[in-house]
Amino acid sequence: MTNEVTKTGGDVARTEAEDTRDTGPVYRPATDIFEKDDVVTVVIDMPGVTPDSVDVSVENRSLTVRGSIDAPAPEGYRRIYAEYAPGTFERAFSLPDTIDAGKIDATHRDGVLTLTLKKSEAAKPKQIKVNAA
Amino acid sequence: MLSYGLSPAQWDPFAELRQLQSQMNRMFDTGARSGRDGNWPPVNMWLGDDSVVVTAEMPGVAQDDIDLTVRENTLIIAGERNPTTGDEDAVWHRRERPSGEFSRSIRLPLRVDPDKVEARAKNGILEIEMGRPDAERPRKIKVKAS
Asked: For the region Disordered, what residue ranges are annotated (chain A) (predicted)?
């Protein structure tokens, strides 16, 4: 469920991502996906991304999340060592038919984006009553 | 005879190779970051006139769960990252985010005063600003005309 369709930024995590336009490199964020009852939760690490710059869109059953890193240099300081760099987080997932694309909730807190996906009514298991003849 | 640096007998080319290898591994280190090997969280370091700033990518770590220790020129960032869910009935489809205890020791380019440490967290980035002890600040010396 919720398979990944495209690899954005390739497998190299935060070192040599593809350089595009003026937004800088594109990174593929680390993601957890788990399912419980009729809810699928997608948790995506997006450190340095402000909540209002996160973009979540669904098109043709493809769910895309994107957010640009807003990490300005501390004022009056120069960088002397770096293990992470500014850029954009982007990742796409394909939604299975069982997910109701109209009922996706998104919250962003402490640099973590959490999406709550619900299974559609049609996909829920149903009890069928057996009537005595 | 005075000798500086390592004498040829002490020079170990394999030590350099090992170092190069670990640097390369680090360069190509992909997604799976584990807190156990002391590489998490990833940090950037910034130098000012009388202070140094370390910023660290720590998404999803609550401020109360971060434990900072500063001694002389060493900063230790430790803590625990809670798992996404503790629910044992949950079915996992993908599990890439590291969790559990972490501890990372970072050597700073200058000695810092433990009383001059300020830390703030915003959108999953922790910023730690550390100042130099007053006694070690570079002083301007005036040249007097005689």
From this structure: 1-28
